[in-house]
Amino acid sequence: MIFGHISQPNPCRLPLAIEKALDFLRTTDFTTLEPGVVEIDGRNIFAQVLDLKTKAHYENRPEVHRRYLDIQFLAWGEEKIGVAIDTGHNEISESLLEQRDILFYHQMENESLIEMIPGNYAIFFPQDVHRPQCHKNKESDIRKIVVKVAISELN
């Protein structure tokens, strides 16, 4: 996992596909976009613009992806995201890997929480279990952009 703020330069060189995704986040005015999918580089890199309400921690299932990494960016609002390394010991709740590249767990081991404020992003790789959309203090409206980057593009 990589955690940062979009206004800060990266201290290390990231794969070109991730830099392309971060550049999209830096240069796009999300107040003018409707919710939906925005293609950045076909199905290799694309963004999902989502207007959501945060929920209680226990209402959100931990998830992982295998074919894409997630760059979760908060445009407005506040949320917490649970995160942990996938130990292989988490009980599967639902597998939609073939249909939607998502695997849900009932719970996750060794979960930590990160607090997201506008401009924060978190990059979740296939080994990173994450539980997004948790409220910080109470239910709130958020605009989140999830950029999906195909693992095959990380040369």
Describe what you observe in this structure.
The protein is mainly beta. 10% of the residues lie in helices and 47% in strands. The protein has 2 helices and 12 strands, in the order βαββββββαβββββ. The strands form 3 sheets. It has a 6-stranded antiparallel sheet, covered by helices on one side. A hairpin with a 3-residue loop joins strand 2 and strand 3. The longest helix is centred in the N-terminal third of the chain and has 12 residues, at 16-27. The radius of gyration is 15 Å and the shape is globular. The two termini are 18 Å apart.
Poorly predicted runs:
none
Q: Radius of gyration over alpha carbons?
A: 15 Å
Shape: globular
Question: Looking across the biggest beta sheet, what order are the strands in?
Answer: 1-10-5-12-3-2
> Secondary-structure element order, as H and E?
EHEEEEEEHEEEEE
Main sheet makeup: 6 strands, antiparallel
What's the helix count?
2
The chain-level structural class is mainly beta
Helix content: 10-25%
Distance between the termini: 18 Å
Total number of strands: 12
Summarize, please.
The chain is mainly β.
Secondary structure layout:
Layout (H helix, E strand, L loop, with lengths): L1 E4 L10 H12 L8 E6 L3 E9 L9 E2 L3 E9 L2 E7 L6 E5 H4 L1 E4 L6 E5 L3 E5 L3 E7 L6 E10 L5
Antiparallel strand pairs: 1-10, 2-3, 3-12, 4-8, 5-10, 5-12, 6-9, 6-11, 7-8
Which descriptors would you attach to this protein?
single chain, 155 residues, mainly beta, 6-stranded antiparallel sheet, 3-stranded antiparallel sheet, 2 helices, 12 strands, 47% strand
